From TrEMBL:
Domain Protein YjdM N-terminal: 3-32
Listed name of the protein: Protein PhnA
Family, similarity comment: Belongs to the YjdM family.
Pfam families recorded: YjdM, Zn_Ribbon_YjdM
Stretches assigned to the Protein YjdM C-terminal domain: 46-112
InterPro entries referenced in this protein's UniProt entry, alphabetically: YjdM, YjdM_C, YjdM_N
Endpoints of the signal sequence: none
Domain of life: Bacteria
Organism: Caldalkalibacillus horti
């Protein structure tokens, strides 16, 4: 009988293996095991248009005029956005632009300053 690791999130013993992932049915947490047996979290690396890795708190510049959905305004190319926050989803940057307020951006349309 093989022993599967407990969930690193909720410590549940009812984990199961699905391909290369371990899954906890109680909290829906998914993770992988590194080759040396140390637990490693599945991380999603967000990169800008130039391939630089983005992190929470970075400042970025918009590289293309972007239409604001539901409005006739445009976020102009060269607009600086400070203190970004990375989120999961299609639009992976959550930010606040001075002239437009809170909005979500795609990382492919920004570059790191």
């Amino acid at each position: 009988m093989s022993t599967l690791p407990n969930c690193p999130s909720c410590s549940s013993a009812y984990t199961y293996e699905d391909g290369s992932l371990f899954i906890c049915p109680e909290c829906a947490h998914e993770w992988t095991m590194a080759e040396d047996g140390v637990k490693s979290e599945e991380t999603n690396v967000v990169r800008d248009a130039n391939g630089n890795i983005l992190q929470d708190g970075d400042s970025v510049t918009v590289i293309k005029d972007l239409k604001v959905k539901g409005s006739s305004t445009v976020v102009k190319m060269g607009t600086k956005v400070k203190n970004i926050r990375l989120v999961d989803g299609d639009h992976d940057i959550d930010c606040k632009i001075d002239t437009h307020g809170a909005m979500k951006l795609k990382s492919e349309f920004v570059k790191k300053i």
